[in-house]
Each structure stands twice: as structure tokens, then as C-alpha cells.
Amino acid sequence: MSTMSNTDVLSEPTTTDSLITIEQVTLAYPTATGTPVQALLPIDLEIADGTFVSLVGPSGCGKSTLLKILAGLLRQSEGEVRLGGRDLSGPSPDVGVVFQQPVLLPWLTILDNVLLPIRVQKRNVAQHRDRAMDLLRMVGLDGFEKRYPSELSGGMQQRAGIVRALVPNPRILLMDEPFGALDALTREQMNDDLQRIWSEERKTVFFITHSIPEAVYLSDRVLVMSERPGRIVADFSVDIERPRRLDATGDPRFQQTATQIRGLLNARGGID
Amino acid sequence: MSVNIAVRAGRGTATGRRSTPRRIVPADWLAVIATFVVVVGAWEAIVRIWDVSEIVLPPPSMIAQSLYDGLVHGTFLANLRYTLTETVLGFLIAAVLGVGLGALVSEVRWIRRAIYPYIVAFQTVPKIALAPLLVIWFGFGMTSKVIVAVTVAFFPIIVNTIEGLQNTEQQRVDMIRAMGAGRVETFRRVKLPSALPYIFAGLDAAIVLSLLGAVVGEFMGARAGLGNQILTFNAVLDISGSFAVLVLLSLIGYLLHLILVLVQRRVVFWTKVSSTSSGV
Questions:
Q1: Number of domains forming the structure of chain B
Q2: ipTM of this predicted complex?
């Protein structure tokens, strides 16, 4: 099954144990004038269980739209999305979402914020409290569980946002430019933390970013999307062994992949 | 990393909630007292120097005396309780109706389509003008006053409730929908708490309006209450007595506003509360 028909650089072999399958998915928004706006051209994509996949592309190209479809927040106009072989018909407890902003609720403590999905999904809160505390410890937020979001820095809030997505133990983690609002140093730290979390939790991650180094550093695969209407124009695999250290960015394979992606985006009018 | 976090936490706490004292009364007490002394003193002086008739404008000292007599020997306390009961009942009914209907209008599309245009239209109607009619329909007892109070207090509450619910940040809604929350869970856990600052602004306007409604209702015909007391004083040209009741009403209005601000601070602890009431 050749799924990457639009791909300029094809490096991903088709996998049989695909967890996320996207087939001929398009999205068109209706407009007041009557002619619908095409946000996504037909997208075909397979993501294997346990892989970390990044999506880079210019602003407004439809990256977030694709993520919202996977999150069950938007319904595609055409095509099929399957998670673990089953048609996606709305938000799934198998999927956790981390947004661009932390989106913590200011009236809940950090612990109550990260337990929110458990309460919403009517699962046993007591059984998940230990996991929540473990995850908070893993991201360095132990001791802050009784604090309110306004008492935490932006980076700490985003860590809490990641923990919230992980507490229900989803198989898939969708991340929409989660570190875009953070300063460079915090961002590097978060990349390091995220890699550690990923190696311990082994989620399948679909990660949207504007940062090419971030994408290459974190990912097994980097997908490149074209400007609107979005389609996937390249699919790079990053074969650098893990765990990667922050100085892995000096690795020639890293440099080469980053340069290729940058060249591709520049040829198409830049990332921004 | 732990050092980094500790430093940030320190800063976060310093600027976090409850750290800056919020004011519900003007900070500069001296200026407030000075203004009071100057205005009241000038009033007293003018009335005495030009020998103004106490039927036109009684001096503050006489009003104070009337207030004291009315409270200690007179009928002020009984009437106060009557009017306060009407006000609080009217406010509570308006609050339940306003928030409840506001939620329905905001969350259920067909109800919104059917009702919202009427709410917008009725907003411009001076509800207080309905008071004579309501007294005819519901009698001279307490019921008609409570209904007048509900009528005037209801609109700021429902309008603010709808406004607050409609203004819930979309990303909060997306966040909880992505967890699989349905309409009820989304409403309960995100929309309603998000709307609380708006709802309290409506309640703050409503509680003073409710007092206004009760008093105006009493003007239309009543057997008791502070509005009724004002009419009685006016009938015998006891202007000083009328002024004393006005002072009492102002104090009650301010007190009700303060109570509401205190409740709001406890309930909506994550936002700042402004001390000024929306202009009523």
C-alpha cells in the first residue's frame, strides 16, 4: 500500500502495525461567499505504534487542522481516520492532547487539573492519583500539586498540561506546538524532558512544531507540510540513536536532515 | 532544574493570587472623611445661616436626630426588615431565574432562537414602569414588591450569564471536549465557572436594583416597608424623616453590595474583583 503518493523524499516503509491511519482525508471550510475554503488536500499517512512523528510547515498550512481531526474535535470532509483499526468518530480516551497554551483551569489546583480527564471520563480518581503524582514528579512539579496555575511559570504550566494529557494513559499523544510560547532555554529543557517522558511512557506522539531543530531532535520521523491548502510533501526518518543528548544537534546526520528540511521549506516560501 | 523551579516558584508566589490586597472600600479614608465633613458641614452652615425652612431642606443634625429616633423609638427597624425581606427574596428569585434561563438560552439552540430576541427587546423597556401594574395584579402585600424587585433585577443577571457563557475561551472548550466531555460536563466543569465573573457582575447590579424595585413597589401602595415610611413622612411634611430613611436605604444598598463582593471573592477567587458597582 503506497500511502505517500505526494512525497518528494520518501523514506518511511509502509508498516503493518500502523496505529494511526489517515486515508485521503480532506477538509474544506464552508464560507459566507459559498465557495468552500480548502484547508487540507487529500492526506495519506500511517503512523506506527510507539513512534515520535513531527509535522513542520508554514503558518496556517493546516497542521493544527489535521491535529484537531485526530483529536476528534473536527470532522474531516472526506476520507477516513482510523486509530488502532477503528474508525475515529470523535474524541477518544486513547488520545491525549497538549495544546499550544497550557489551558489549565484557574479554579483548580494543579493536581485537580491533571486529574480532570479522569473525572470527565468517569474513571476512578483514587486509582489515578498515584500516577498523577508520579508524572508530576517526573516533570519536576512535585510539591506544586496543591498550587493554582497562576502560581506557576509558563514552562511549569505547560509541564502540567503534558501531565494532564498523560494521566489517563492514552496510547497517542497529540501535541500542537506545545513549546511555542516558551523562551529558548525553557524550550530546550522541555525538549529534554519530553524525550525522557517519551522513552519511559512509549506513547505514539504526533508533534506539531515551527522549530526544525526541535522536530529533528525529538522525532523518529519528520513530516513536512506545504502551504495552504496543506498536503504532506516530505517524510524524513531520523536515524539517530536514543537517548539523544542536547548536543546531538552537532551530529552531522542531524545537521543534514535539518538542512534538507529547511531547504525544502525555503524553496516553498519559508516556514513562516 | 530544581533550582530553576524554586526561583520561578518564588516569583510566582509573590505575584500570585491573594498576594496583593484587593480593596472593596476606598483606600484613602482620610480623603473620604474629609469630603464628608466638608459637604455635611457646608450643608449645615448654609441651612442655618440662610435660615432655610426644614420643610425644604432640613439640616444634617436634624436628619441624624430623626434617624436615631426612628431606629431606637420608631418604626424604622420593622420597616427595614420588611423591605430587606422583599429585596433579598426578589434578588434570590431573580438570581435563580436569571442564571437558569441564561444557561438554557446560551446552551440550547432552539431556546436561544425563540427567546433571545425578546430578552434583547425587553432590555430597553423601563421595567420599573411596570410597578403600578404589578401592584394592581398582585395586591398591596409583599408579593407585588417581590415581583417588582424580580422584574428589575432579572435582566442584568440573565444578560450577564449569557454573555459569560458565550465568552468562554474556545481553547478551554476544546481542551475538555478532547477528553470526551459531552455538553453537560463541558457546561459544568468549564463554561459555568468561566462565566462566574460575568454572573457576579450581573448579581452586583441586580442586588441594588432589587432594593430599588422593592422601594418603588412600596411607593405604589403598601402597608409597610421603608418606601411606605417615606410616603408617610412626606404626607406630614416630615422631610427630615424622609431624609433619614434615604440615609438608611443608601447604607443598606452599600452593605448588600459589600456582602456580594465578599461572596464573590470567595467563590471566584481566581480573578480580581473591582470595588465599583456597575452604574445603576
A1: 1
A2: 0.85
